[in-house]
Structure formats: structure tokens, C-alpha cells
Specification:
Layout: E1 10-14, H1 24-41, E2 45-48, H2 62-71, E3 77-84, H3 90-103, E4 108-113, H4 120-126, H5 137-148, E5 169-173, H6 177-185, E6 189-191, H7 200-210, E7 222-231, H8 234-253, H9 266-269, H10 272-281, E8 285-289, H11 290-304, E9 308-312, H12 318-329
Parallel strand pairs: 1-2, 1-9, 2-3, 3-4, 4-5, 5-6, 6-7, 7-8, 7-9
Length: 337
């Protein structure tokens, strides 16, 4: 039986993107505008992704930004998609998210990634010690999970706040590694198909096949993130998407800059090598009118059978971005309003 979009929730991934001419503060204000509207529309979650040393992304202090959004909304879940655990001591993250969960109970998600979210030099600048490694990730996840668990008398180190909050932990991935770890630990799994499409199906299969129930989760729960830009017409969406393509081109060429205004006929003038590289990386990108995007997302859902879809949208004009979320939200199951 085919799963329908109307049967699953939809959520938002935000990087607090800095557009040309804006400051980081401007990006935070715009993120809050989007989050408030997403809450009104019945979106399920609003997540921020940790990145560093990037001129177009302001979500580096992820937990601080989560607190800002959670404190100015009332119902939508807010969280990380994700915190890059190799950059932090597990105790620090437990205390930060324990604080958030204490302030906004039942609304905080803790998504964890094992990549540094930046370049190698910045990664070393972030590390709590130079011997730290992504290979420590499984141990660090378990340590963090234990800090958030109820108090036990033999605990020598306690996260206060944090202890007993049992903030839901998600594992994020762009390969099969985190899928297998999420399955083994009985945690929900989110795949970054918005920029790393190659291993999506293999990761989902491994997660479902290897899932072991846990205190947090009895049945596997999978989420996939995709890029979406919706507008009133296909032509308008293509025009708005030129900002996104410029951003993606900067990733491929390592010439990053703030999100640029849209330009006409960008695809016709685009360097063919860059175009091919971007389109391969951004395979799961859906651009067009509401009808066009709905058709694409429904096909994606039938192909993956995920339990939730998360949407990332890179649009220069914030009103157009909000309108895109308004169009998309109509397809999905709404959070209880």
C-alpha cells in the first residue's frame, strides 16, 4: 500500500542562512519569522544544523539559537539537525540540552552528527583535544545518553540540568555508518539526502533491518531531508531557485559567499561542470509550483517509505521562503493545532 504525504509529518531544517547584505542578527530574525509561520501551519519540528567558518551560515552556536526559537514559539518541536558531537564534550551537550528541555519541556530534540561541520583547520580549532576523533562517536553518544537518563547512585559525573530529562536523541547521517549505529542503539535516524543522496536507500535498508527496540523507541523511525522551493508557478520557482544554485555552486568550487539574489536564466549560463556536480549532489531537490512539488515529494515518499520528511529551503526573499513553506505544508499531516 502506497504511503501518502498526508499520512506523515513535515519539518524544517534551517541553517540560519545569511543572505547578501544581511548580518547574522538579520538571519536570526528571519529564522524566527519562518519558525512562527511553520508552527501556525502545523509543521512538526524546526531544526538547526551546526556549521562553522562559513560566510553564509549563522547556526554555529546551535543550542543558543534553539533556545531563541523555542522561547519565541509555543508548540513546535525545536532541535538540532544536528549538533556535531566530535566538536564537543558529551557532558557539555547534555547540560545545554538539559537546560533547553527544562525551559521548554517536551519540545526539544537532540540530533547528533559525527562530521565536524566545517573544514579541517577549523575542526582542529573546535576540538576539545587534538586526539579526539570521529571514531569516538559511538562511545560519546552512549555517554551523552547516560547523562540524560534518570539518576543512578553510582553516577560519579552528573549533568545538572540534564539528568532525567531524557531528551530524545536522533542520529544523523550521510552514509550507512550512523544508520547502523542508530539501529543498534534503538534511536530514530535522519538521513541528509538534501546534499548526500548516494547512500540514502542503503542506509534506510540497513536501519530497518538492524533496528533493535530501546527504552526511547520501540519501532524504527526514519526521516529524510530534501531541498524544496515552491512558488505559484514553475517559472517563478525556477527563478527563486537560482539563489540556491549559486549557493550550491559555491560549495562545489569552495567559493562560498552569502546567499545571492535570484537571477534570470542562470541555468542557461551555468558552467557545465559545476552544473553537473551540483545537480548530482542535490539530486533530491524539488522545485516548482505546488502541483509539481507535490508530485515529486509523493514519488520520493513512495520510493523511500520514510516516516517523516524534512525540508530545507534556500530562498533570498524571506516572504517568498515563507510562501514556499505555506504551499508545502498543505500536502502533509499537520501537527495537532
Amino acid at each position: 500500500m502506497k504511503k501518502q504525504l498526508s499520512e506523515i509529518p513535515v519539518s524544517v531544517l534551517d541553517l540560519a542562512t545569511i543572505v547578501e547584505g544581511d548580518s547574522p542578527k538579520d538571519s536570526f530574525i528571519k529564522s524566527l519569522q519562518v519558525a512562527k509561520r511553520a508552527e501556525q501551519l502545523g509543521y512538526n519540528r524546526y531544526w538547526f544544523a551546526e556549521h562553522h567558518n562559513m560566510p553564509n551560515i549563522a547556526s554555529s552556536a546551535t543550542s543558543v539559537l534553539i533556545g531563541y526559537i523555542a522561547g519565541n514559539t509555543s508548540e513546535i518541536r525545536v532541535g538540532s539537525g544536528g549538533v556535531m558531537l566530535p566538536n564537543h564534550a558529551p557532558l557539555i551537550i547534555a547540560e545545554q540540552f538539559g537546560t533547553l528541555a527544562s525551559l521548554y519541556p517536551g519540545r526539544i530534540d537532540l540530533g547528533l552528527g559525527r562530521a565536524p561541520g566545517t573544514d579541517q583547520i577549523t575542526s582542529y580549532a573546535l576540538r576539545r583535544n587534538l586526539s579526539g576523533s570521529v571514531d569516538d562517536f559511538p562511545r560519546d553518544v552512549i555517554e551523552l545518553k547516560n547523562y540524560l537518563a534518570p539518576h543512578t547512585n553510582d553516577a560519579k559525573v552528573r549533568a545538572i540540568p540534564g539528568e532525567g530529562t531524557q531528551v530524545p536523541i536522533w542520529l544523523l547521517g550521510s552514509s550507512t555508518y550512523s544508520a547502523q549505529l542508530a539501529a543498534a542503539l534503538g534511536l530514530p535516524f535522519a538521513f541528509a539526502s538534501h546534499f548526500a543522496p548516494s547512500h540514502l536507500h542503503d542506509a534506510l535498508k540497513l536501519y530497518l533491518k538492524g533496528f533493535t527496540p530501546s527504552d526511547q523507541l520501540q519501532q524504527p523511525y526514519s526521516l529524510a531531508c530534501v531541498n524544496v522551493i515552491a512558488a505559484d508557478t514553475d517559472e517563478e520557482a525556477d527563478y527563486l531557485a537560482s539563489s540556491f544554485y549559486q549557493l550550491a555552486s559555491g560549495i562545489v568550487t569552495n567559493k562560498r559567499k552569502p546567499l545571492q539574489p535570484p537571477v534570470k536564466n542562470f541555468l542557461n549560463e551555468w558552467d557545465e561542470y559545476e552544473k553537473a556536480a551540483v545537480l548530482q549532489m542535490m539530486k533530491y531537490t524539488f522545485i516548482g509550483s505546488a502541483a509539481t512539488v507535490k508530485k515529486g515529494l509523493q514519488s520520493f515518499l513512495e520510493d523511500t517509505q520514510v516516516d517523516e520528511i524534512m525540508v530545507a529551503s534556500y530562498v533570498y526573499d524571506n516572504n517568498a521562503k515563507i510562501h514556499s513553506y505555506e504551499l508545502i505544508g498543505e500536502f502533509f499531516k499537520k501537527r495537532a493545532l
